[in-house]
Design goal:
This protein is α+β, with helices and mostly antiparallel strands. It contains 3 helices and 12 strands, in the order H-E-E-E-H-E-E-E-E-E-H-E-E-E-E.
Length: 195
């Protein structure tokens, strides 16, 4: 149970770096039977950098994404960050929207499911070294040591990975707990990284 709570907390921290804080809650067995994140995959589960995750596309409105998912999300506003967060926990899906314009900022998946995959075969919990072998080193790293997270953002591709940095937890240390897509180009994180 303690490890599961840490895993879910890491997911919340990873999303805090890409859009807005997410509430960490225990999931899965021992939590009242709630399914874990990513237990229901959307569409083909394919992550296409700069474009889509399953049927959820960056060019869509939030209303269109809700229709594609087929059920309403949890919605949280973060005025200080200028974002609105939509979450489908069972699908392991987050949509971050710019509050002022309604534009989709980032679409991402989180959790431990291997049912979502990038167009090059990278799945959640893939080790950082493997991600770099597949996508190269053309990323910008945003380090958040207090949260135990590094965000690898491939700006030219419109692809990012939230990597967990928790040496005390070798199960997830150095692995992707979040994979997201955004429009290619410079997209600074909402929260400032460590200097």
């Amino acid at each position: 149970m303690r490890r599961r709570v840490r895993v879910i907390a890491a997911a919340g921290l990873a999303f805090a770096l890409i859009g807005a804080p997410a509430l960490a809650q225990p999931e899965g067995p021992g939590s009242g039977g709630a399914p874990g994140p990513g237990s229901r995959v959307l569409g083909d589960g394919l992550i296409v950098p700069g474009q889509r995750i399953g049927p959820a596309r960056l060019a869509m409105t939030v209303e269109q994404i809700i229709a594609a998912v087929g059920r309403p999300p949890t919605r949280d506003e973060f005025p200080a960050d200028g974002v609105v967060l939509y979450e489908w926990r069972e699908e392991g899906l987050w949509v971050s929207q710019v509050a002022g314009t309604g534009r989709i900022r980032v679409i991402s998946v989180f959790g431990t499911s291997d049912r979502y995959r990038t167009d090059r075969g990278v799945v959640l919990l893939t080790p950082r070294a493997r991600i770099e072998a597949v996508y190269g080193r053309g990323f910008r790293a945003y380090d958040y040591p207090a949260e135990g997270i590094t965000l690898l953002r491939y700006h030219a591709l419109g692809l990012q990975f939230g990597i967990v940095n928790q040496p005390s937890n070798p199960t997830i240390h150095g692995r992707a707990f979040q994979i997201g897509v955004f429009r290619p180009g410079d997209l600074p994180p909402v929260r400032r990284p460590a200097p």
